[in-house]
């Protein structure tokens, strides 16, 4: 009964944390757009950037449609796609992120805090990148093109920042056509910075090789029996001690290191643990989301 209650409490806390992260993204994205990027006439990545671009083009043609409204309209087909591909839980929090962004875009007024264009681009892009990175790290996207990015990242093991850069090249082309090369250049700088910040925060997409040398491999294997990824066991012998020492090799996501370290040292406090950066090229390996 205690274990069940503990599980339920953990589940509630996890949901609460995700709601907070979704709301935080909405706040950070609105701050980045209304207080910095719009002042620099620099465009963000994803749907917010497309909405900025469309808003500018529509204003040139005397059509008044707000960025927030455009974000809602552009997200509708992508939310449906997310529902079918990733399920209701992933889509729910992505939808919360979109809604919170729209709300904060209405609440936070557009104003010029900094006059220098490059500084506005840098600061706004970093703020937005932090918000997006936290959403991905919490197990959901910010909606919009991030749904497509998540799908490509899961299927082809490409970093989200890299995939975002490819998608947003289209925005840059149209920005150059309608608003000149200068606007496209600042937008490119901002997109690259946002992508870089996203990749640094979203560590789940980084794979590592975990090597464990232990004399208590049966107990460790039993403790990790239900873990998502498998492991390979090699039997060995220490050169100096001449004692039997087994080697466990696992390919895992970087975010799982603290959990595995605790699980291994709980059984064998003298275990030798080594982590190496790796790149999975082929084989039966699926990232958790």
From TrEMBL:
Annotated organism of origin: Liquorilactobacillus hordei
Localization terms from the record: Cell membrane
Keyword Lipoprotein: no
Name of this protein: DUF2179 domain-containing protein
Domain DUF2179 per the UniProt entry, residue ranges: 229-279
Keywords annotated in UniProt: Cell membrane, Membrane, Transmembrane, Transmembrane helix
Domain of life of the organism encoding this protein: Bacteria
Spans through the membrane: 12-37, 67-86, 92-109, 121-140, 160-189
Gene Ontology CC terms: plasma membrane
Membrane topology: Multi-pass membrane protein
Taxonomic classification: Bacteria, Bacillati, Bacillota, Bacilli, Lactobacillales
